[in-house]
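User: I'm curious whether this sequence folds into something compact or stays loose and floppy. Could you predict its structure so I can see for myself?
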Amino acid sequence: MFENRLTLFRMFGFSVRLDLSWLLIALLVTWSLAEGFFPDRYPDLSNSVYWLMGILGAAGLFLSIIFHEFCHSLVARRYGLPMKGITLFVFGGIAEMEDEPQNPKTEFLMALAGPVSTLLLALLLYLLWSWGKQLGWGDLVNGITGYLAFINLLLAVFNLLPAFPLDGGRLLRSTLWRWQGDLRRATRTATRIGSGFGIVLMLFGVLNAFGGNLLGGMWYFLIGLFIRGAAKNSYRRLLLQEAFTGKRVDSLMHSASDTIAPDTSLAEVVAEHLPRQKGKVLPVVEQGRLAGCITLAQIRNVPREERRDRSAGELLQACPRDAVIDRGTDVMEALAHMNRTGTSRLLVVDGQQLVGSLSRADITDTFSAWMELEDAS
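Assistant: Here's the prediction. I'll summarize afterward.
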């Protein structure tokens, strides 16, 4: 998720990023406001004014979502929950947590911060709209403040629905967690409700589409699909944490039995080592020490007929930081590193010594086996 992101700015120590999928919703919101919402409510204005209102309304929605997620993040940080940052994507925004909350109180307050802040923003914008009506600010300003007051109220109400991972679903989970004393059980219940809510939205979308509201039906269906998928992924993440709590990278890694010496020919690297190592970054070892790495891109730039006479040592360079991890690193931290960098295989080191490698498949295969045992019991 969020592989194509652009960092917009940093504020209060948080990075605000834009997933390219947000461009789709931004264009759709601008178009629907300029061609439908504002013309219906404020007739007799020019097309250029409608489009200006559409652009400003979409920008206001953009800032409202950032404000909502910032409030989540600030409360989370206040209670010691590390946050990666905020990402805006096609269905809105998300404050990215590095871990699950440590107790029900932290989750409850963090989840409550978003809807409460959005409700307060909606109230402020409503008062501004009322003031503007009295002072005669005109349709352009009043239209935008009125729309933003309405959309923030709608966002707050929608987020309070008890469907995990919406804020209301997190409030439900924290309540169940406190009552039952079992995070896993509370998460399972909350995600089932969230998944069911997603299915209801999808069915509602289908009915709308068949009823003639094709665009609205499509968005209901996609939002329902997203909520259902997000609920399942949240439960899976919790199970991943349970499976690998306290486990280090060296408990899952493959030992470094196949190594490349500096004098190994590139032809031999391609023919013998590459099929076994299955990576884009290949380690070169000299006297038990990780001397550096060569990459597939480097080998590809060497003509095939020259590879027998060229050695790995000639292409040797420092290993990319993203490709190396210490053997004592927590497995979940290693998986987060892979997700963040897009790396599927890591070289495991102990100081300057190469001791093994860890792939995403090593983690997922171990998790699948763990899940089979859990299901059997």
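Summary: Residues 47-78 form the longest helix (32 residues). DSSP finds eleven helices and ten strands in the chain.
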